[in-house]
Hints:
This protein has one domain (39-183): NADH Oxidase (3-Layer(aba) Sandwich). Strands 1-2-4-3 form a 4-stranded antiparallel β-sheet, covered by helices on one side. The chain is built from 6 helices and 4 strands, in the order ααβααβαβαβ. The chain is globular and about 55 Å long. It has helices spanning 13-28, 44-54, 75-89, 95-103, 123-146, 162-168, and strands at 66-71, 110-116, 150-154, 175-183. 28% of the residues are buried. By secondary structure, the protein is of the alpha+beta class.
Amino acid sequence: MEPSTPHAGAPNELAGLSELATFTDLATRRRTSLLIDRNRSVPDELVTRLCRLATWAPNHKRTWPWRFAVLTGDSRIRLGELVAQQLVDEGVTDQAKLDKARGKYLRAPTIVIVGARPHHDDPELDVENLHATAAGVQNFLLGATAAGLASFWGSGAPLRADSVKELCGFDTEDRLVALIYLGWPSGAVEPPQRPDPDVVFVDS
């Protein structure tokens, strides 16, 4: 008997598993360290492609909430000053911590700040806008890995500062979701191990 062949258009299970293995390799080797060449710039065209990739994240109500600002050159110094002032406004007096904030964004040649537009008419969509933007950030990070870049998702004081929104040209009501350090890696770092997920299968 001749071996059966898949129907036209039917998914090829072995090919699917191979593609999953390729994607798994990409996801698990995503660089999350700040071992970045500070002097090698990232082309604007490449950053734009990564931002475009981010917009393919799930967004089933098509609100298109994401906003992007790309900081290079002296704008990173300005960012550090604004973050340091935010910390002062929050009561931080440790001079070493303030000095670190002023200089930390020079650790990468490119800083990408990602924001989410609010949705005033529907609280559920307002939350979903944040989720869609966070999903977009993951697309961005995986794309950066595929392109050979190192990336790091930062948070903290920069995402709490209205002055940073102003620097980025965002609206005051926009919410800042991620500060991404982006650049070419200057060293190799083993990715951290992750615990196995707790998965519950329910069939009835």
